[in-house]
Amino acid sequence: MDQVTARNLFEQGAMFILIGFPEGSEFGIDYNSWNVGPNFKGVKMIPPGLHFIYYSSFSSNDQLGLGPRSGFFCNFLPKEVIVRKWNAKTEDIDLVPEDEQQKYKSNKEELDKFLGPYPYEKYKQWVSLTNLINIDIVNLLEPECGRIYSIALFESEASTTQSRKAAATSMAEVNMDLETTQRSKKVMLPKLKKVQGTKIRYSSVPKKKFPDGSTPAEISKYNMDSTYALNLLLAERFDHNIGKLLGEVQFAFICFLIGQNYDSFEQWKKLVYLLCTSGDAAIQHPDVYLDFITILHFQIREIPSEFFVDIVTRNNFLTLTLHELFQNLLSDNIDSKLKQKSISFQKHLTEKFKWDFSTEPDDYAPVVVDDKQ
């Protein structure tokens, strides 16, 4: 980091102060994480803007060491000081009363030596993956609880008189031999449900592919082009603004890559497929698809190797889906700048990964509806 940048971040950068975080636990912001020591109190010189803060607590009594990862998006203002406190009972970060916050803010110079500087050398990498995520996207998608959890949280369903009677009846009807004993144990297991407010509120990709009253020829077209389903989603969630959907693509990728949330990986795949197979949308929104190619370029570089195998080698999701995108962007009606960028991106992937986009995969053969059916 040059001196001008360092001085600017020192003067304009934000602070995140975390009190009481356990030694040996993991704390991270964006692409940077640390196993903290006993004197850790947070991070300073944070560039203003959107960041992702995450943590995994360490317990000396836990043979597994670090617990599951939790995190949240935080939009820092210039010079902002955010103070939070670790709650050992809930193993989570709590808000701090205003008077206590002021105490730490007024003593931030004394805390400075306990704050790690934001690793600016990875900041451009972070921006390349999040430049279309804004606070409106975060507010729309994040769980009601405000946390992104790497594993789903479950709780027992409330027991009622009716449910207890049903369980007792089931037990009475079971013959207590060796085989049915196992079934009785299952009956006695508590019913679990996801903790309310912890689910990421992702957009639902419409299952309806074509309008009511479509002719067989139109149905064939809609089966080959997802623009109708895409437009339904945009109307429902983003006021017809396709650019905002790219923000969700980036949001899902960050929640998967850094938040370690597997459901987000599945959502990312759904949205990538939807956009890649919407040829008419690419004609209508060339600037958005220019951004989409840029997003894919940076995201593909960051996919962890174990997931890369899953979406390339095992089921060919990425190569098959990108084949659809490249075919759509070869259309005569495609903007020339977008077409050239698509060709360059395809060439880059072929050279780097040896992927073959020249042949038509059987998996994506057109679906044709017979007029006589």
Automatic annotation (TrEMBL):
Residues 202-358 form the AAR2 C-terminal domain. Keywords: mRNA processing, mRNA splicing, Spliceosome. One of its GO terms (biological process) is spliceosomal tri-snRNP complex assembly. The keyword Nucleus does not apply. Gene3D superfamilies: 2.60.34.20, Aar2, C-terminal domain-like. GO terms for cellular component: spliceosomal complex. It comes from the Eukaryota. Pfam families: AAR2, AAR2_1st. Residues 12-142 form the AAR2 N-terminal domain. The keyword Lipid metabolism does not apply. Interacts with PRPF8 (via RNase H homology domain). Component of a U5 snRNP complex that contains PRPF8. Component of the U5 snRNP complex that is required for spliceosome assembly and for pre-mRNA splicing. Belongs to the AAR2 family. This is Protein AAR2 homolog. It comes from Lymnaea stagnalis (Great pond snail). The lineage of its organism: Eukaryota, Metazoa, Spiralia, Lophotrochozoa, Mollusca.
